[in-house]
Structures are given as structure tokens and as C-alpha cells.
Amino acid sequence: MDTILNKVVLITGASSGIGEATARVLCRAGASVVLGARRTERLQKVVQELKEEGGQAEYCTLDVTNLEQMHEFVAFAQQKFGRVDVFINNAGVMPLSPLDSYKVEEWNQMIDVNIRGVLHGIASGLPVMEKQQTGHFINIASVGAYQVSPTAAVYCATKFAVRAITEGLRQESSGHIQVTLVSPGVTESELADHISDEQARAEMKEYRRISIPASAIANAILYAIEQPQEVDINEIIIRPTATS
Ligand code: NDP
Where is the Ketoreductase domain (predicted)? Predict the structure, then answer.
């Protein structure tokens, strides 16, 4: 097992849910974490708590749809901690709805955050890692990257895309870069809070009763990071044991 001690880990979408839990788990395991998201007050609170526990943590306001801000996020991490060892592309949105409700703005938002956001993370983080000759990308997809369900066509399309981009990154990046796709099943978070379609929202509320804690996903991420550099954990799927 490699040690996570002193690794510099950047996490997008770290203001709630899986990103926040991952920041906490990795920081407590000894990583220096840099949290990014739009809700600065939330990031500030998490970072303050981690620092009070003796952890190394910083935050930077980040909208992943903005490439300039993504470059600034990476530059901020380099300035604070000197390097970028792990980049976790976690930020995502899931405003589910049937296609024939034509919520085009929400489709575009999912494409912008879930796909463009991941590409921006790669565009900003990969050059740094290639220069360092070491690094690890962890992209958060979903079980929706493997199967499509009603109301989730666009969301699943974005997660199929994340899976394709991650496999492409694995094939194309130099032999020094580890690449991991993490695909959660239903997990406790704020993800479903932004569903505007009433029926999809009600169905999701019912479905989410079997949610597993966000720390379960964070522990899987920790496992991938702890591997020695020559070992690349390519895909992890984590679902609740319960099926309905
Ligand atoms: P949350 O809604 O709790 O977290 C989503 C995070 O993404 C928030 O921190 C939010 O921060 C951030 N975010 C959204 N838009 C942007 C943006 N434009 N720029 C920067 N950050 C943004 O949900 P989860 O923790 O569940 O989601 C994390 C990831 O896990 C997502 O990619 C999601 O698709 C995936 N996932 C989740 C599952 C689940 O059941 N929870 C299942 C499968 C996959 P802010 O609003 O402050 O910017």
C-alpha cells in the first residue's frame, strides 16, 4: 500500500455530499486537501473544522463550467502545497425529468457541469501531472454510466460521457498517471434536492430511501489513492446492498 500522507488532493464539488465526505476522509488520513465549489461559506466551514482537527485543508471558490476558474483552482493548490497529486472530478448535478418536458436549460446545465466540468479539470490538472511525471485522476460517474432509466436520459448521457472520457484518459495519458472511475449507486447527498420535475422528484425521494452514506464512496476513493503508483484501480462501482 502506498501512503496517502502528504499527498495533495484537489476535490471539485466539495461543499456537500460525496465531495465533502471525501475531503474529510482523505484529510483525516493525512492528505492535504483543496476543496472547490461555488458555495464558499460551506467550503469555509468544512476547512475550518478540518484545520481545528489538525488537518491540512484549503478552499477556493470554483465554478467548474468556467475554465479560467479551474486553472486558478489548480494554481491555488500549487501555490499552497507545491504540487497536484490527485484530482477528483466530483462536481455534478442531476435535475431529472422526462425528455418531453423539454427542460432544455437543465439539460444544458448537466452537460456543462457533468461533462465540460470534467474536461476542464483534465485540461487544468493533466499538464501539471505530466510535468511532475506522476498524478492520479479520479472521476466520479454513476451507476447511470452503465444503464439508462426513465427521466434520467440526459443525466445518464453525461455519465456515459464521463466513463468514456475517463477510459480515453487512461489510454492516452503517459504511463505515469493513474486513472480511476468511481461510480456510486444511490448515496446520501443533496443531489436530488434540485429536481424541478415534481414526479421525478417524488420517485427519486422514494428510491433514495436505501441510500448509503457518502463516506462509503469516500472510503473507496481512499482505497484507490492508497495503491502503489504502478497499480491502477480503473473502475469501482459501489451500490447499496439493498435493492429497493
Ligand atoms: P451534492 O449535490 O451533495 O454535491 C454536488 C456538488 O457539486 C456540490 O458540492 C456542488 O457545490 C457541486 N457543484 C454543482 N455545480 C457546480 C459547479 N458549476 N461548479 C462547481 N461545483 C459545482 O451531490 P453528490 O455528492 O451526490 O454529487 C457528487 C457527485 O456524485 C456528482 O457527480 C453526482 O453525479 C455523483 N453521483 C451521486 C450519486 C448519489 O446518489 N448521491 C449517485 C451517483 C453519482 P456548489 O453548489 O457549492 O457549487
Answer: 7-185
